[in-house]
Amino acid sequence: MTALKLVPWGDVIEATPQILQAAKKLLGATRKGKAEATAAGSIADAGTEAALPTDVQLQHLRERVLQLEQEQLDGAALIQSLAQQNAQVIQAVEDLRQHNRRLTLALTIVACACAGLLVWALKQ
Fold first, then answer.
1. Backbone dihedral angles phi then psi of residue 48, each to the nearest 5 degrees
2. In angstroms, what is the C-alpha Rg of the chain?
3. CB 85 within 8 A of CB 78
């Protein structure tokens, strides 16, 4: 429960809509590009008579390359955002581990002190 308190949830919640929107955009662009590539492939496979001129095919390929480059940039931005959030969570967990070590040490000291007091009280 303490780990959840240390995570900057305000930042995570604030960034979530942007990440979700980027993921949806990336997924939509990927699906659209796949559909266009399939359509272009079926047009080219339809036969030499129905094939598009080379200039048109080349232009389609250039547009597709530009679209793929944009999708790659969007994906990289999304991954970077997720990596930053992951780093925040990892830092919070590390802080908790250190806090847990300090509490364990303090508890051990208190337990030893209580045991010492109990032994002293029984001898009195």
1. -70, -30
2. 30
3. no
